Amino acid sequence: MNLSFKPIIFLGTAILLFSAHLPAFAGQTLKDQSEPSETLETITVTAQKTEENIQEVPISMSVFDEFTLEDRNIDNLEDIAQYTPGLQIFSKSAVKSSPSLRGLHSSDRNPTAGLYIDGAPITGGIGFDETLLDIERIEVLKGPQGTLYGKNAQVGVVNIITKKPTNETQGKIKGSLGSDSKRDISMNLSGALVEDTFYVGVAAKHYEKDGFVKSTTTGKIVDDREHDYGKINFRWTPTDNLEASLVSSKTKYDNGDMSFGLTNENDREVGNDYEGYVKSEIALTSLNVKYDFSEAFSITSITAYRDYKDLRGFDWDYSNNDATRWHAVDDNRFKTYSEELRVNYENDKIQLVSGIYLEKSDFHYDQENDKGWLSSIQNISKDIDGDTMGIFSHLTYDLSEKLSLIGGLRFGNEKLTYEDSTETIDYDEDDICPKIGLTYDLLKDLMSYVTISKGYRGGGFNTGAPDGYSKSFDKETLWSYEVGLKGTILDNRLMYDIAVYYMDIDDMQVSEYVTATLAITTNAAKATSQGIEASLNFQATDTINFFAGASYVDIKFDEYNNGKVDYSGNKKTYAPEYNFNIGVTYRAEQGFYASADITGYGDMQLDIANKYKRDAYEIVNAKIGYEQKNYDIYLYAKNLFDKKYDSIGFFNGVYTQYSPPREIGVILTYRL
Description:
Blueprint: H1 6-25, E1 44-45, E2 52-53, E3 60-65, H2 66-71, H3 77-82, E4 87-93, E5 96-101, E6 104-105, E7 113-117, E8 120-122, E9 135-142, H4 146-149, E10 156-162, E11 170-178, E12 182-194, E13 198-209, E14 214-215, E15 225-236, E16 242-253, E17 260-262, E18 269-270, E19 277-278, E20 281-292, E21 297-315, E22 326-346, E23 350-371, E24 376-398, E25 403-419, E26 424-443, E27 446-457, E28 460-461, E29 472-473, E30 476-489, E31 494-513, E32 519-539, E33 544-560, E34 578-587, E35 592-601, E36 604-605, E37 613-614, E38 617-627, E39 631-638, E40 647-650, E41 655-657, E42 663-671
Parallel strand pairs: 7-10, 14-18
Antiparallel strand pairs: 1-2, 3-9, 4-5, 5-6, 7-8, 9-10, 11-12, 11-42, 12-13, 13-15, 15-16, 16-20, 17-41, 19-21, 20-21, 21-22, 22-23, 23-24, 24-25, 25-26, 26-27, 27-30, 28-29, 30-31, 31-32, 32-33, 33-34, 34-35, 35-38, 36-37, 38-39, 39-42, 40-41
């Protein structure tokens, strides 16, 4: 690897943190230097599909519990990315966000990072969005997770876990008012219908906010946002050994147009003559059943159904000129059924997870294009049906008190069939995802790990490809090599982790424009991605907490020549060179609260020729308030200094994706 000087800062930090363990190892106590009244709590995660202490999991992770989500005013997955080293979620339009993790960016059909909600997979990039309400924990796993999670977990997974209702009756009402007429109200209530046996939780939210992009044709704001969300959670524990949870949620959007404009338009203005809209609906239901045969052996079934109705209209030409008119209406539906059946076994030396995963998908696309320059209306209808199967096993074996062996293997098969009025195309692909590694406890509170793993994302179809271009593309694969450290010092007041990785990528899927407005996916490139991630959480006193995280990634095309242009050596698109966050929280016993943080991203290329890019930027967030047992009141600011970070040249140089302006508001919370 040829890492630049920037990651040396992170490596130096790792050496200092390691050195901080040495006095304790030599018999001195750091407790003599500081006597805090508060320490960091142990974080339990289910990243490897079993409950573990986060500091013992050989995966680079960022975890957000319900209190962190509240403190940092996190409402959605885009907000999560600001505080996750190595992660960006690029919003292309309402309900159409694409994650980029460790430099690999997701497409609409094939994400590079998987999203799981209560164990239910969201295996397509369209609709990578989730309202974060009544959440117990969010886990962001970085690096290939194909062994346990399968396809499209190529460089990571986002796990969202809903809070379990219990015997204790709990409830909360939360409302906020903010800039651009933001109005947001939510509630959740949970408790036992039959004590110790049957529980229920409900949650609901309404959100609306005016947009900030103005039409010069109509004088109206075009990108208003509004949605409603509801969730119900039934939990049943008829015996000590059996637990079942049924979670069902639905989101309805009534949004305006995208926050786009032509690159030659005035700032945050568009010249459209058609009012765009998004009226999509997302419904998700999952049934999770677990039976414990003993303390060592259990079986779990997760059955899920997701129905996404994608209804939207766009003015792609953003003008009132009939000669260039391009209005489009999408009326699509994506249905996915999945079943995972797995067994867990654990004793003093072995931790084993094995199972089978089955998925059936039905994607139907309908699009109407009104193209003025063609003096015609084009209607496109197509279907993609898919069947996915995976068989997997993951083992952790303790070779000694300090040394453990990690091994995993997954065999997967994906079958896809594309059909329209003129042709039928089949796709059938097998893949094997292995993982091997070691963990070693260097000191009592310092764990190291090294892993080698394979990741992949499936192939698909270029349904609009013109003659002479391939109608399909193959899977993308990579081998990842990672070394990491996780530790705690200062009597469990400071928790940190650091990871260095190198990824060798073959058959990289690249979005390539074959006309000014038509892109297809090709397997034209070999690439490498190398980088470093680090984070820390420091409980300085019983009232003050510091947190920080940062990542650096260098990803470029090693070989990429499409026969017309040689892009070898160019940087990968949608891969910010770095991101970081640093912040502080103050919470006094008397109830006063204050927090502030700064987050930022480095330069990001928007096209494979590296002609267009989004410049580096930083934003500041702040929050102050007063907290009591039953109520809270806060004043907050997102992007306090109204920093602009528009993506100029998006979509082959045609559009600008406008960044959201400053938001200032007030939050009121009442708890039962």
